[in-house]
Amino acid sequence: MAEPMKIRATLQGDVADVRVLMAHPMETGQRKDAAGKLVPLHFIQTITGQLNGKTVFTADVSQAVSRNPVFAFKVKGAKAGDKLSVTWQDNTGDKRTDEVVIRAGS
Amino acid sequence: MHQTRRSVIKAGGAAALLAAFGGALLNPGRAQAAWNKGAFEAKSALDAMRALGLANVEDSKAIDIRAPEIAENGAVVPIDITSNIPGTTSISVFIEKNPFPYTGSFDFSQGAVAYVHLRVKIGESSPVRVVATAGGKHYTSVKEVKVTIGGCGG
Amino acid sequence: MKRVLVLGTLAVACAAAAQTPDPTAAEFDKFREIMEQDNPAELFEVKGEELWRKPRGPKNASLEKCDLGLGPGVVKGAYAQMPRYFADVDRVMDAEARIVHCMITLQGFTYAELAKQPFSSLTRTPDPVSIVTYVAAQSRGMKLAAPQNHPKERDTYEAGKAIFFYRAGSFDFSCTSCHGVDGQRIRTQPLPNFTKPEQAIRAVQGWPGYRMTGGVMHSLQWRMNDCYRQQRFPEPGYASETVSALLSYLTVNANGQVYRGPGIKR
What we know:
The structure holds 3 protein chains of 3 kinds.
Chain A: E1 6-12, E2 15-21, E3 44-51, E4 54-61, E5 70-76, E6 83-90, E7 95-101
Antiparallel strand pairs in A: 1-2, 2-5, 3-4, 3-6, 6-7
Chain B: H1 5-26, H2 37-40, H3 45-51, E1 58-59, E2 63-66, E3 70-71, E4 77-83, E5 88-95, E6 102-107, E7 115-120, E8 126-134, E9 137-147
Parallel strand pairs in B: 1-9, 3-9
Antiparallel strand pairs in B: 2-4, 4-7, 5-6, 5-8, 8-9
Chain C: H1 2-17, H2 23-36, H3 41-53, E1 84-86, E2 91-93, H4 95-105, H5 111-116, H6 127-137, E3 142-143, H7 151-165, H8 175-179, E4 184-186, E5 189-191, H9 197-204, E6 206-211, E7 216-218, H10 220-230, H11 241-254, E8 258-259, E9 262-265
Parallel strand pairs in C: 6-9
Antiparallel strand pairs in C: 1-2, 3-8, 4-5, 6-7
Helix pairs in contact in C: 3-6, 4-6, 7-11, 9-11
């Protein structure tokens, strides 16, 4: 079952600096388990970032991304209080969306 | 090889259509432009770039790739990429010595800055190649990351 | 004869490596600090807090009355002040040993079930590991202050020191073989000298740590066990007085320095 992401979105001027930490095994399909069996391919394939519900960032990635991935991207035209959400979908069709409110920078 | 702009766009368009069509067959649930299986399963960066329609790629010093010279652990290598080429709409990342070099593409055309941070698995010391697309043209830069056998766990 | 040979080797390694600060290690540190700003350990902090608050075990109780040394339920700052003496058990305990104690007394779990597989694997993170990650995170940015007020706290420090220097096993190693000399290195990892305060911080900093190898969460209980394994010693008991004593020695040596919270490790 898809576990929650940790998202931090901080404003720098009118750009939101978004940092996302995802919980996902990102299995390459090359690893053998304790019993010697190959663990199947299981990895996040697509990521999208939305500002107030509108897609502003998209990514397609491979199983070469590290386990428990961390991504950062920057969204233009953001304001404090705007909603920033991130969605990922993996090769099994599992998906997860989490949302935060953009905080003013310090 | 000199190609006319028109033929480059045609080739890029066809490849993109093929990728989308092939991807849709393999991922029937997906509505959007599909995950490019052909590119992701290519065994060389060059083949992957072809599958992505990245042709006539010029070297550029305006792509900033920040990664460790030597990775403490090849399982988690942090990479910071900024494209300073005006009008950059997307970048693609290739870890040339990985079994499947194409690692991902990041699209900024809908309102993101041409910047991304990602953490990747690098199997052996390898060039990390970035291709940035701006105004329909493609530019590239590369950075070598060494991966070693480490020490204990502290 | 064997003892002289080992010392001789150490002396040569020491002389060779002690000349310049290691640039590779400095680069590792730099990138590790960057990665610690967005640390997968945070996923385990969240899990640990859930486990702290949720009523669980045969007694269906939460851990919110657990006394980590600053009073029942006080988590903020507690990790930085451990190991410490606890009157209810008349011994010094490190954080994870204390959490295990609370899981037994407040929630009704047994030592046997908690000690059976106490260390993380790719598919399973034991509850005490997530909980100690949460507890440690609540001491982020605080100065280490493992107390030495109670006589047993001082005795435990001395016991830890004796254990640290004790040579045994088929390699005739002690902790000092790797960590009692300046300037040593094993492959690409520098080996800090934990007998010195300014280097002892490296025994505590970044633990519990999200290990990049395997993407698993590991605490100091695991690290001490792994050190024993690397020295070809028998395993120390999980949450035992031996481990608390060693952690007391290391932490007290590092007292006064700022703890940055759960980190990232190789």
